[in-house]
């Protein structure tokens, strides 16, 4: 008995349509990656394929609860607007988003740091007709005892003081590493560049203060090593998708 394969609304690489079976295979493949949220979206930014991890992170039970919707439909507030706006930019410009460090939310409101990659999908005429990508969790990938003592001490000092003077060069010097070796090391351990790691630590500390205290935002900004309120707001929004004041209201 011959089974007809219907073309999927998203067109794929290699000058051919992505069929429903292709999407199912990709989705099934990423079902075995619980530390990554995988997705394929059409030209309007609607999900046409997702993995189980993405479904669970948003508090749903089935992939059918997500298919056909946009991120803003399954995540309330500004946190749902951020990925939708990212999608619109990739679809409009055809430029990929590569390893963008951002804070996302795992139900119930557990902050998770992710590296997000989104690639445009083109049809045979070169038109952008969809996108494919994933957000993978940032985690320590080697045992802590393998981390050099000097690096651990330097990182602990930074996390404790959040000194505004801390830069990749500072971290390299305190860790007794060259900047090149530090970059390879942080990539190996955290899958982040030194700059990304420093920004992550500052934003994570600020988010904790915003959620657990009523301190003025400018005070939190200075305490976490930002030069002023404006610089803090830009960095915080870049990482989380919302301003510090909106983040505090949504806590």
Automatic annotation (TrEMBL):
CDD domains reported in the protein's UniProt record: PAS
Record-linked PROSITE patterns: HTH_ARAC_FAMILY_1, HTH_ARAC_FAMILY_2
Gene: cdhR
Gene Ontology molecular function, alphabetical: DNA-binding transcription factor activity; sequence-specific DNA binding
Gene3D superfamilies: Homeodomain-like, PAS domain
Protein name (Swiss-Prot/TrEMBL): HTH-type transcriptional regulator CdhR
SMART domains (alphabetical): HTH_ARAC (SM00342)
Keyword field: DNA-binding, Transcription, Transcription regulation
Span of domain HTH araC/xylS-type: 152-250
InterPro entries per the UniProt record, alphabetical: AraC_XylS_family_regulators, Homeodomain-like_sf, HTH_AraC, HTH_AraC-typ_CS, PAS, PAS-like_dom_sf, PAS_4, Tscrpt_reg_AraC-type_HTH
Source taxon at top rank: Bacteria
Organism this protein belongs to: Stieleria neptunia
């Amino acid at each position: 008995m011959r089974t007809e394969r219907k073309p999927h609304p998203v067109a794929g690489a290699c000058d051919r349509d992505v069929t429903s079976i292709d999407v199912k295979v990709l989705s099934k493949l990423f079902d075995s990656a619980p530390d990554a949220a995988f997705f394929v979206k059409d030209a309007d930014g609607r999900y046409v394929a997702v993995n189980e991890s993405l479904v669970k992170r948003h508090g749903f039970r089935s992939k059918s609860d997500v298919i056909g919707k946009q991120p803003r439909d399954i995540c309330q507030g500004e946190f749902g607007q951020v990925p939708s706006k990212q999608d619109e930019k990739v679809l409009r410009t055809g430029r990929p988003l590569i390893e963008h460090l951002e804070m996302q939310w795992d139900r119930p409101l557990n902050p998770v740091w992710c590296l997000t990659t989104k690639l445009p999908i083109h049809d045979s005429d070169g038109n952008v007709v969809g996108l494919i990508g994933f957000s993978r969790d940032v985690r320590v990938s080697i045992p802590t005892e393998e981390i050099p003592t000097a690096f651990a001490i330097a990182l602990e000092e930074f996390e404790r003081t959040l000194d505004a003077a801390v830069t990749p060069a500072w971290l390299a010097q305190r860790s007794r590493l060259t900047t090149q070796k530090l970059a390879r090391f942080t990539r190996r351990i955290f899958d982040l560049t030194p700059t990304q790691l420093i920004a992550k630590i500052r934003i994570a500390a600020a988010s904790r203060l915003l959620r657990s205290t009523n301190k003025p935002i400018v005070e939190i900004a200075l305490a976490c090593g930002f030069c002023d309120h404006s610089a803090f707001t830009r960095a915080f929004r870049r990482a989380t998708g919302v301003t510090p004041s909106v983040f505090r209201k949504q806590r």
